[in-house]
Amino acid sequence: MILLKIGGGDGINLDGTIEDLAALGEACLIVHGANALRDRIAARLGMDKQILTSVSGYSSVFSDQDAIDAILMSYAGLRNKRIVELCQRHGIDAIGLTGLDGRIVQGERNRGIRVREAGKTLIKRDFSGKPRAVNGDLLNLLLERGYCPVLTIPIVDEKGFAINSENDDIVARIAATLEIDTVIQLIEAPGLLDDPADESSLIAALDLAELRAREAAAEGRIRRKLLALTRLCEGGGTRVIIADGRAEHPVTAALDGAGTHIE
Question: Average pLDDT of 57-76?
Answer without folding.
Answer: 89
